[in-house]
Amino acid sequence: MASKTRYDATGIQSETEPGSRGRVLRNLLGITRVTDIKQAESQALLLAQAEAVQRYGDDQRFTVADICDLHRLWLGPVYAWAGEFRALNMGKGGFQFAHAPLIQGLMAEMERGALSQFTPCLAAADAHIARALAVVHAELILIHPFRDGNGRVARLLAVLMGLQAGLPPLNFSALDGRGHAAYIASIHAAMARNYVPLAVIFERVISQTWKQYAASSAQ
Question: Whose C-alpha in 71, 136, 180, 213 is 20 to 30 A from the C-alpha of 150?
Fold first, then answer.
């Protein structure tokens, strides 16, 4: 869970749950243990993904409002600020995300740009789909519009885009473990609008997804 060791944050959205020793953000469930809040978020994400798959169709051109709705759909039962842009400046690992007052404008620019260009995500060769996913994912992560859950909501959006393009639900195991460092480096490369490294990673994600799909279909 987000904490002073993970984020450098100040402001009302940085309030922590009483009794959590500053380790758990203030939440609607009164949870004070890190393991419990992680479980609550994970369970809520599974429910949100199932609902989102039903809500957003193949012809959906995603907007900023849709991204906020996805975040609220997921974390609304957990945090009062779900679906709202963060009102504080945040950094992670020495990297500073977009300045809070700029978020609204940057998200509007993303809607006019990457979201308009790449959604609905059309069926194409895997490399072309990977490029679309990489651009949208990188732009959302670099803006980092929410107090918490940006990476997971960006993955959820990628799942929905992949479904639009005819892919099974994406398997993100390529981003974990030893692949995490390469993922972080690819996000940094995207700051200079170099999306190639992240597109390569998304090609691995798509490849792993198809392998998993084939294996499950053969059973």
Answer: 213
pLDDT digit string (tens) for the chain, length 219 residues: 333 334 444 555 889 999 999 999 999 999 999 999 999 999 999 999 999 999 999 999 999 999 999 999 999 999 999 999 999 998 887 788 999 999 999 999 999 999 999 999 999 999 999 999 999 999 999 999 999 999 999 999 999 999 999 999 999 999 989 899 999 999 999 999 999 999 999 999 999 999 999 998 887
What residue type is 71 in one-letter code? H
Q: Which two tokens stand for residue 73?
A: 């759909």
User: CATH no. for residue 189?
Assistant: 1.10.3290.10
Tokens of 190: 């995207």
Question: Which stretches of the chain are DSSP H helices?
Answer: 34-55, 64-75, 103-110, 116-118, 126-143, 150-164, 179-190, 196-218
> 26 and 17 in contact (C-beta within 8 Å)?
yes
| Domain of 127, in residue numbers | 57-218
- Domain membership of residue 203 (yes or no) is yes
How many structural domains comprise the chain? 1
Angle at 182 between CA 188 and CA 156, to 5 degrees: 80
Residue 121 falls inside a structural domain = yes
Q: Is 34 within a domain?
A: no
Residue 2 to residue 30: CA distance in whole angstroms: 16
